[in-house]
Write a structure and sequence with these properties.
Length: 534
């Protein structure tokens, strides 16, 4: 067989059943003829699939050195960078690929994956749309990914449209029903959310997450509630995946709290937290304390550069999870002209990519410019409640000297209890036991104290307890600090139609109340580290 194309086709076919043998043949050919670009590309792919990323990169770079616009080399190098955890670098290769091959759906799809991994959700959505438009082989999967990034980008109505499109073609898709329910809940449409979650349960009666979400849409007022009974049955099922039992446990904790059965609520959450801790690992308290100390040391003076530039002043909330930030954000964004940025992580993501050694090594001017431009593109007349703001406040002050910071505080016992009872993402390991929660909250306080010391008149403290007990007085003080006129609309956050995609989506749709203040007292004998003075 002397035809080069036929040889390549034979190797590609062999790689499907015996990749190691196909790779050995590729390497033997390259030892004789190192300039065979198609064989270099195939060898690069096989090295990647077999786990040898450095050798894969070497072969693909050799191919690009010989033929700089080779589509397969660009695509494969992007996938090597994705596998190496470098989505920004991967996106550069995929962008080169799509620029040269705009009609190839796979390049657009991989660009979407890279953008999604890097947190550039609007850009990921655009790439996924192009992949669908150019005939990607599995449009349903791409639509689900598209819907997910639209939801994270704060565009839940568009996400809902994509989920509906999936369901029009595949009404049995459980993930699409769940996604539709989540975005409906974020938009405050409880009826649509309930219908979607119940449709998912018809297809998968063991789907604990659907029952958990149904519990969060309502107040459980009867021990005979069928959704409660369903969760109780699922929580004891050893044959279910650990994540399912965890979802059931957190749902039970919320239901028992509604029924004023604090002991059972705490026990259900404790079991779920223990399961999650066994699955994802312990929170590293010493590492967290070192991180806090490093940030405090790195910021020894007000980081604002010169005088504020004027124009819109972004608002950043500095707080721990479950301390009232979502309620305050909904109040403030009820005002005309002040938009919600939700928990926009763009600064955090660019910092992680372009200044990985921060806080030991400060970000370069180029990195700061990239962060400033990326954030400004989303609008500066806005409120951002990302919990990570408390770590990044020095960077944020440097980027936006005109910014205003609201330090939101809440009794550590109520905050910690709420964290313990709720279903957080796996990355939030600090929520799974009370010792970790206390250490985490102490670190948050230490960081907030540093910003109080440095920011002067640019930071204002807001106590959750005052916000719910005396909302008008508290909000007038906040608006005076922000330089904005009083508007009674901010007293009605339940009327805010903006999306709420956090754990608080149901709570903030209700009128302001003080029912969660002092809730810890019902659990006082169980809270240990949260109530101990030392």
């Amino acid at each position: 067989m002397t035809n080069p194309l036929a040889i390549l086709q034979a190797l590609a076919m062999e790689s499907r059943s015996n990749p190691a043998a196909a790779l050995a043949r590729c390497e033997a050919m390259l030892a004789r003829s190192p300039q065979l670009v198609p064989i270099l590309c195939l060898a690069g792919r096989l090295h990647r699939e077999l786990g040898n990323l450095p050798r894969s990169r070497e072969r693909l770079e050799q191919a690009l050195a010989l033929a700089p616009q080779t589509p397969a080399a660009l695509l494969e190098l992007g996938m090597v960078e994705l596998a190496s955890g470098r989505p920004s670098r991967a996106a550069e290769y995929f962008e080169r690929h799509t620029a040269e091959n705009p009609d190839r759906a796979q390049g657009w799809y991989q660009l979407g994956v890279a953008r999604e991994m890097g947190g550039a959700w609007p850009e990921a959505a655009d790439a996924y749309r192009k992949a669908i438009g150019h005939g990607i082989s599995d449009p349903r999967d791409v639509r689900l990914r598209l819907a997910g990034v639209l939801a994270r980008a704060g565009r839940p109505a568009e996400a809902a449209d994509e989920f509906r499109q999936v369901l029009a073609d595949a009404p049995e898709d459980v993930g699409a029903h769940m996604g539709l329910g989540m975005v409906a809940a974020a938009l405050g449409d409880r009826k649509a959310a309930e219908a979607a979650f119940r449709a998912a349960l018809v297809l998968d009666p063991d789907l604990a997450l659907a029952r958990q979400q149904l519990i969060h849409l309502k107040t459980v007022d009867s021990p005979d509630d069928p959704d409660l009974a369903g969760l109780e049955a699922l929580a004891g099922r050893e044959d279910l995946p650990p994540e399912s039992r965890e979802h059931a446990g957190y749902g039970l904790a919320k239901a028992y709290l509604d029924l004023d059965r604090p002991g059972e609520a705490f026990a259900a959450a404790a079991r779920a937290n223990a399961d999650r801790e066994a699955r994802v690992g312990l929170f590293d308290i010493p590492a967290w304390r070192r991180r806090v100390a490093d940030i405090r040391v790195s910021e020894s003076e007000d980081p604002a550069r010169g005088s504020p530039r004027g124009g819109p002043a972004p608002v950043f909330l500095l707080t721990a999870p479950r301390a009232g930030a979502t309620l305050l954000e909904q109040m403030l964004t009820s005002l005309p002209g002040l938009e919600s940025r939700g928990e926009d992580p763009v600064i955090e993501q660019i910092l992680a990519t372009h200044a990985p050694d921060w806080p030991h090594v400060p970000p370069t001017d180029a990195a700061l410019d990239a962060m400033r431009d990326a954030y400004a593109a989303g609008g500066l007349d806005s409120v951002n409640k990302l919990p990570g703001n408390i770590r990044l406040a020095g960077i944020l002050r440097r980027l936006f000297p005109e910014a205003r910071f609201l330090r939101v505080t809440r009794d550590i016992r109520d905050t910690g209890l709420s964290m313990f009872l709720r279903d957080f993402p796996d990355a939030a390991r600090f929520t799974t036991d009370l010792e970790s929660i206390r250490a985490y909250l102490e670190g948050i306080e230490a960081l907030a104290d540093r910003w109080d010391e440095l920011f002067g008149q640019a930071i204002h403290k807001v106590a959750y307890e005052s916000l719910v007990a005396e909302p008008e007085t508290t909000l007038k003080g906040i608006l005076e600090f922000l330089g904005r006129p009083w508007d009674p609309a901010c007293l009605e956050p339940a009327g805010n139609t903006g999306p709420v995609s956090t754990l608080s989506h149901a709570e903030v749709r209700r009128p302001v109340h003080t029912g969660a203040v002092g809730r810890w007292r019902r659990f006082e004998t169980l809270l240990g580290p949260l109530t101990d003075p030392d």
